[in-house]
Amino acid sequence: MGKRLFPTFVKYVSQSVMGMVGISCYILADTWFVSAAFGAEGLAALNLAIVVYSLMNAAGLMAGIGGATLFSLSFAAGRERRTEIFSSTAALCLFFAVIFTGAGLFFSGGIARLLGADEVIFAMTRSYLRTILSFSLFFIMNNIFLAFVRNDGSPRLAMAAMVTGSLSNIALDYLFIFPFGWGLFGAALATAIAPMISLALLSLHFVLRRSSFRPSLRRLRAGAVAKMIPLGLSSMVTELSSAAALAAFNLMILAMAGNTGVAAYGIVANLALVELAVFVGIAQGMQPLVSRSRGADDGHSCRLLLLYGAAFSLAVASLAYGTVFVWARQVAGLFNSAGDALLAAYAEEGLRIYFAGFFFGGLNVVAAAFCSAAEMPKRGFLISSLRAFLLVLPLAALFSWLFGMRGLWFSFVAAEALTFIAASVMLRRFIFDRANDK
Question: Which 8-state DSSP code applies to residue 187?
């Protein structure tokens, strides 16, 4: 890519970030409107239900990023091969959608109980879960179309689709919760309609004949699915880290501080999802460029792309932390219309401590995605697993036992810092070994 590498990186990453922030605002909009309408109890119910939304999004990211990475690596193989990869990815999407939809229709009450919903918030949690899961096909398919359209040379259309979906969600949230009075069902329905609108815009890629592939039931290949799954695992585990932390933190906080503590964590976690979405956007914007450079055996460009991604993630982490450190009270107040003093105290402290972890967390997300795009899926999976399960969960249990709520916030920072050390060791040779540069 030569001298055009950095401008191309900025183009892909900026559009991907804007789109991912749009998707993350699906839940952030729900958080604001639900807090305004239902207070701490509504926030607690929403935060419990978001765990399942993260699981569903993880499945979509795994299929979408894995398939799109294989698509980019195989770009020179011709139209038929690209069609095989897309069609096989879509089939995997249908498989996931059947599982999530069935869970929503038949087990939403049991899932709500499993996540910790008590009698006060059980009905709201179950309603949100049933609605979101019933529309799982559209959430997962949206992730797949976004990844393929971006990798097929239309990052601007992908960005426009995500932003338009997010804006529609905000408008529908207000309409369904306040004038219509539909409660958490209305919030969930507004969120479910958003990916449908996004998919309608993404279909222009095919209608206008800009695509280099076509969906075809005759081109399904089990081998393509087997190859794409390892390439998408790190993206899946990155998203699963949010679900795992949400579920574990919710249960621990319920025991320590009840529904008010969970509501405070809902504020922190949902704002954190927006920052995480920026890092995922950086990673997804890098992915097609890294995959193409890797396919061309261009180690120098791969190395530069990794360094660009790291620099961008640190800049974002610095900006976000400065904002929440200085204005933590005002940020928490946006989601505390009832003026609950205990909720405010929990949320303010949580914002100032938790967001420090993203100085390391952003680098970890970029490193894991880079490994997958550069055909090093085992390293990417290990980096993602460390931050998702292997470190944060035991540290959360230990720190919360020793230091209470404050320890819980610090456990996230510690887990990301330790993961960063491990990721640095894994990528040290790649960063400094220039023997394979072209």
Answer: H
List pLDDT tens digits, range 74-88: 665 566 777 788 888
86: tokens are 């897309």
The pLDDT value recorded for residue 417 is: 97
Q: What is the pTM of this model?
A: 0.76
DSSP tag of 211: -
Nearest CA to 212 out of 88, 48, 74 is that of 74
Token pair 């081998």 is found at 223
Tokens of 74: 């195989």
Which residues have CB under 8 Å from 193's CB, separation 6+?
168, 169, 172
What span, in angstroms and rounded, lies between the C-alpha atoms of 138 and 194?
9
Computed on alpha carbons and rounded to an integer, the radius of gyration of the chain in Å comes to: 21
The per-residue pLDDT for range 9-55, each reduced to its tens digit, is 988 888 788 777 776 776 777 788 888 888 888 888 988 888 888 88
Q: Write phi, then psi, for 401 (nearest 5 degrees).
A: -65, -40
- Four-CA torsion 185, 190, 192, 193, nearest 10 degrees: 140
For position 432, what pLDDT does the model report?
67
Under a CB-based contact definition with an 8 Å cutoff, are residues 369 and 358 in contact? no
Give the DSSP H or E segment for 431: helix 392-432
Distance of alpha carbon 232 from alpha carbon 325, whole angstroms: 34
pLDDT computed for residue 223 by the predictor: 67
Token pair belonging to 343: 């909720």
Write down the pLDDT at residue 357.
96
How crowded is residue 435: how many other Cβ atoms within 10 Å of its Cβ?
A: 5
| Residue 44 near residue 121 (C-beta atoms within 8 A) | yes
Six-digit token pair at 345? Answer: 């105290």
Residues 281, 356: Cα–Cα separation, whole Å:
19
Q: Please give the Cα distance from 202 to 195 (Å, whole number).
A: 10
